[in-house]
Amino acid sequence: MNKKSNLVKLGLFILALFSNGCQTLEQSNQIISHNRESFAIKDLPQGTQTATRGPSSHVCMKRIDFKAWYMSGLRQYGNVTDFSTESLIHLMDHEISTVRFFSALLLGERKEVSAIPKLEQTLSDESFPVRVAITQALLKMGNRKGIAVIEEFCAKASAEYDEGNYRNTVDLSDAARVLAEAGEVSAIPYLKKLLTWDVDDSWGVRITAIRSLRKLYAKDPSVVTDISSMLNDKHPQIRAEAAEILQSLESSQ
Q1: Same domain for 157 and 104
Q2: How confident is the model over 218-232, as a mean pLDDT?
């Protein structure tokens, strides 16, 4: 498997496993099991996760040490040992896209504002998952310059989806999630579309779409109709997630 497809699968793994900050361990184990042979990343470093009791008695992964995970990825993919800000900025020009991906995420997680000029400069990276990671990093530091890049890609990938070309659907899912986290209602049409994606093992994309719609409920309450429609999804995790979101919305009113 080439590095680009490996990185795309890694992106799907991240968004499906940790979107919304809480995931049942059963669900997490299913995703890990499915993806274990798809890319080389190992399990989360020991001591980086804490299991806690969440809503509806679900066991949730609440605290993830993402810094440790990103550093582990840099060690694995780029043999990186220097994690200083200067080194990470330099790594944004690395030939391996996975190294650029983890470098951007780590810079964002640490809110390294001195890296903003370099991150803005690399928003045109050839790898879309890297562009998403850069946008997320900038957003963590209050910089929204990557939003236009994400919206442009979403429009293109959505048009391809309508034509039956699903090569960028996983990236579309990740991009729409980032828009939703940034409070952009422009993500809603794309998220609604992703709720209909029903290929093998695509439930991670649908569950991410539901959670992203939940984040936009305050700006557009009509999304509750789309969330409700997923009570009839064929996958039990999707039905359970939809029910839990609806219950939470009802109790918050």
Answers
A1: no
A2: 97
Q: What is the pTM of this model?
A: 0.76
User: Does the structure show a pLDDT above 90 at 152?
Assistant: yes
Backbone angles phi, psi at 93, to 5 degrees: -105, 10
Structural domain boundaries, residue 184: 147-251
- Residue 133 falls inside a structural domain: no
Left, alpha or beta for 52 (phi > 0: left; psi -120 to 50: alpha)? beta
Question: Quick check: is 65 in a domain?
Answer: yes
- What number of helices (H) and strands (E) belong to the chain? 13, 2
Residue 46 backbone zone (phi > 0: left; psi -120 to 50: alpha; other: beta): beta
Q: SS3 for 61? A: strand
Whole-number mean pLDDT of the chain? 82
Work out whether the CA dihedral 30, 36, 37, 41 comes out positive or negative.
positive
Task: Mark 112-137 as b/e (b = at least 16 C-beta within 10 Å).
Answer: beebbebbeebbebebbbbbbbbbbb
Q: Are 242 and 230 in contact (CB under 8 A)?
A: yes
